Amino acid sequence: MLFVAKNVLILFAMIFIAYFAGIRKIVTENGIKDFSNFLVRVTMPLTIVHTLIKPYDAKLIANGLKSFAGSFLMLCIMAGVAIFFVRKSKIPMNKQGLWMFVLTFSNNGFLGMPLMMALYGSEGLFYMTLANLAQNILIFTLGLRMINRGFRPVDNMGLKSVLLNNINIAVVIGLFLFFSQIQVPEVITGVLGYIANMNTPLSMVVVGLSLSKYNVKDMFTDRDSYILSAVRQLIYPLIAYFILKVTGYGAGTLVPAILLFTIVLPAPALASVLSEQCDTNPKFAAQCIFITTLASMLAVPLVGGLLV
């Protein structure tokens, strides 16, 4: 647990540094967008490709498929629970969709991938990448319907646009290199290695800068965001831990850790992005992201303790 807590503390220290740089306007809002675009379109994809330039390992593929399947099934169950809970509760209609969305999906991209890289190396990053692929498919199909609950429907982005993003294309390229065992020139692997070393700190910087855009006082005014965080980052992980222990799913591998960390991570930045695009209560989306991100500073090390 000490190892996990130390690494998580380092990661969140970087978030705080970036946060204060943001509120001091050392980095402008345009700069935040540029950092984010560079991370998503360049650094993350190349890091994934670099991760998969390695000797063929059948166990890695088998466990990767377990991570994908386990994540997909887990998200479907969480979505079912969220939909049932929201329908039976007295949550205002203009919040119901975001309740469902935040209770189901996690920040696998900006936080999950670099966290797994820091804790478990390239193997952890590979498994989280496949888990994130499962989440992306569901976010832009089921997730869009959730976000728009109670509002006018918008056109779905379509499965093609979901799958053909830089992250998933990088997975395909990386898997091709992994299965074909093509010898990549040392100069290229060297460049990819340096870029991969940037991925984790840059991800934390983007998270911190993104949080700095919000008015802190406004972020603490909605009680619903606290309840959401408690359910998502306390109750869900304990139930999932019990189920994984009883079923033995992925026992002896990193898969259970990937699934547990996926659950405890904060609400994804996409909650705010999609809410802005669809005009469906973006302020509440921002509050959920802010509160769950703060809560994850305590929840993530605790989950790490369960895995010891």
β-strand percent reads under 5%
Gap between N and C termini: 6 Å
Number of helices: 13
CATH class categorisation: Mainly Alpha
Helix content: over 70%
Low-confidence stretches: none
**For the CA atoms, what is the radius of gyration?**
19 Å
Q: Could you say what the CATH topology is called? A: Na+/H+ antiporter like fold
Number of β-strand runs: 0
Structural class: mainly alpha
Structural description of this entry:
Helix 3 (58-88) packs antiparallel against helix 4 (93-104), helix 3 runs parallel beside helix 11 (255-264) and helix 11 runs antiparallel to helix 13. The mean pLDDT is 85. The protein is 80% helix and 0% strand. The protein has a single domain, classed as Na+/H+ antiporter like fold (Up-down Bundle), CATH 1.20.1530. It has 308 residues and is mainly alpha-helical.
Write the topology of this structure:
Blueprint: H1 2-23, H2 29-51, H3 58-88, H4 93-104, H5 108-147, H6 159-163, H7 166-180, H8 186-211, H9 216-219, H10 223-247, H11 255-264, H12 270-278, H13 282-306
Briefly characterize the structure.
This protein is mainly alpha-helical.
Features:
308 residues; mainly alpha; Na+/H+ antiporter like fold; 13 helices; globular
